[in-house]
Design brief:
Helix content: over 70%
Number of strands: 0
Shape: globular
Radius of gyration: 11 Å
CATH superfamily: Tetratricopeptide repeat domain
CATH topology: Serine Threonine Protein Phosphatase 5, Tetratricopeptide repeat
Largest sheet: none
Order of helices and strands: HHHH
CATH architecture: Alpha Horseshoe
CATH class: Mainly Alpha
Number of helices: 4
Strand content: under 5%
Number of domains: 1
Distance between the termini: 25 Å
């Protein structure tokens, strides 16, 4: 549920709110897609280092997932 709400916020360029809901979703379950989307939300906030940290977490979950590199 939190992930869906986060996607709506992200789509509407409300990236701080999206970040909050992505974090809630990740607290319940690690998911490569959510880590990737969190990285995007952080990148849009110009939080470059934090975005890289989330992308690295995604790689730990699924190191061969190509979508992380897009």
């Amino acid at each position: 549920m939190g992930e869906g709400i986060a996607e709506i916020y992200l789509k509407n360029d409300k990236v701080e709110e999206a970040e909050m809901f992505f974090r809630t979703s990740l607290a319940q379950k690690e998911d490569v897609h959510v880590y990737n989307r969190m990285g995007i939300a952080l990148r849009r906030q110009k939080k470059w280092v934090k975005a890289i940290v989330e992308y690295k977490k995604a790689l730990l979950v699924e190191p061969k997932n190509e979508t992380i590199f897009l």
